[in-house]
Amino acid sequence: MSTNPAPICPKFIPAEGGGNINSTSKFEGIRFSLVSYNILAQVYVRSALYPHSPSACLKWKNRSDAVLTVLKSFGADFLCLQELDNEDFYKGNMETEGYSSLYIQRSGQKRDGCGIFYKISCAELLVEDRIYYNELVNSIKDGSSCGDDQNNTLAGGNNDSDLKSSWSKKDSRDHGDLNDPYVRLKRDCVGIMAAFRLKGPFDHVVIVATTHLYWDPELADVKLAQAKYLSSRLAEFRTQVSDRYDCVPSVIVAGDFNSVPGDKVYQYLTLRCPKSATLVECIEEYPIPLCSVHASTRGEPRFTNCTPDFTDTLDYIFFSPSDRIKPVSILELPDADSPSVVGCLPNYYHPSDHIPIGAEFEITKD
């Protein structure tokens, strides 16, 4: 009787290299881990779309078992999942591992969504909020925008020429005139954010958010509008949490941004305010400064999505930089020539066409 290979369960390694994440040196702050993973919704899994994948590893029973094995192996305090369908299945199985969860389903007729799973032993949920990017349509109705160039870019489009058309396998454009901003903006994408009080030697509140931005490279302007709306909503939520709980919360945003390093979405989310700008100008244009965990440590991964038509980095963990929070370890990533990714994903080693990314953070006291 043949036995299929077991899924790979990556471990955390030092963020800067050369260190030891299991160091015996005493740390008196709070340490927690977070993993982000686009697990590939089963509704998108068809052998015709993944002819390179062994048919057995695409079946729900095999895939769901593999995804669960990988998720449980992390022991992470927070799991940010995208393309999460069959939510009740994952919720029930992860509850036995000590997790509670939050979920938002995509708008319209879409059957997948985003979820945040958190260990009850690590964090106490304070408040949550949801992001529906279809609400961007309201910015046209009332004449407002999430950025000075939003209405201009929506009129024409802005191609990311390096992105490949394979993404169309998972989704198709809604019927309608894409020159109509109402049609162009309504992509049924969502996000979810929540504030947690971490359990440790002192009080600290962290905001964890996850999202999945739109895929189409020919609608790069829509992705940028979504990124600006995300940033604006996060800033509002952070202010509400700060006022309500009298705290200065850390912010972590993780997900599938369908944007490669250096494109406009990435640049916007990680851009530092120019020295010539006033504080008011900076806050209006870039309401919440973020930096990438990987870019600030070992560099962005060579890829987080691996298919025959497209292999590049689309997934990120961003955090609000401060003197109090520091990424100390990251989840190990496969090399491009690793046998586990040869032939592309998904396969028996990786149950999704994305690979998980993760980080462990340390919080110090004021």
Overview of this protein structure:
Helices cover 23% and strands 25% of the residues. With 366 residues, it is α+β, with helices and mostly antiparallel strands. The model is unreliable at 147-153 and 155-169 (pLDDT under 50).
Secondary-structure map:
Layout: E1 12-14, E2 30-38, H1 55-58, H2 60-74, E3 78-84, H3 87-95, E4 99-105, E5 113-119, E6 123-132, H4 136-141, H5 150-156, H6 181-185, E7 190-198, E8 204-212, H7 220-245, E9 250-256, H8 264-270, H9 279-285, E10 291-292, E11 305-306, E12 311-312, E13 315-319, E14 325-331, E15 357-363
Parallel strand pairs: 2-3, 8-9
Antiparallel strand pairs: 1-14, 2-15, 3-5, 4-5, 6-7, 7-8, 9-13, 10-13, 11-12, 14-15
Quick description:
The protein is of the alpha+beta class and 366 residues long. 23% of the residues lie in helices and 25% in strands. The chain is built from nine helices and 15 strands.
